[in-house]
């Protein structure tokens, strides 16, 4: 059995994508010092406000998802148990 590597499975492709993303982030951060923004809130005038705001937003999103996982997580055989109980109900009803 051979495993063919797709485009995104190749390590050199992943390295190229990560380097491109880092370069784009650096360019966007550099443009933050050059481009004049029409900010509404005083915090928007701070350098690097949007990257910090986005990072904090992502961290909060991950923490909320971890908290929600405790209540929403089901066992691996959850649907098998539901199917078995449904089959048992149909046999009882026959």
What is shown here, in short?
With 94 residues, this protein is mainly α.
Question: Roughly what fraction of the amino acids lie in strands?
Answer: under 5%
- Give the overall silhouette: elongated
Count of runs of 4 or more consecutive helical residues: 3
Number of domains: 1
Task: Kindly report how far apart the N and C termini lie.
Answer: 47 Å
**Helix percentage:** 55-70%
Uncertain stretches: none
**Biggest sheet, open or closed, and with what strands and sense?**
none
Q: What class would the helix/strand composition place it in?
A: mainly alpha
Overall pLDDT: 86
How many DSSP-defined strands?
0
For the CA atoms, what is the radius of gyration? 25 Å
What is the helix/strand order? HHH
Transmembrane segments: 16-35, 47-65
Keywords: Membrane, Transmembrane, Transmembrane helix
């Amino acid at each position: 059995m051979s495993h063919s590597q797709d485009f995104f499975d190749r390590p050199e492709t992943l390295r190229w994508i990560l380097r491109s993303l880092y370069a784009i982030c650096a360019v966007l951060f550099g443009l933050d010092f050059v481009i004049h923004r029409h900010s509404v809130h005083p915090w928007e005038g701070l350098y690097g406000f949007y990257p910090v705001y986005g990072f904090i937003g992502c961290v909060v999103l991950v923490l909320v998802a971890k908290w929600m996982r405790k209540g929403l997580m089901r066992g691996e055989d959850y649907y098998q148990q539901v199917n078995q109980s449904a089959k048992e109900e149909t046999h009882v009803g026959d």
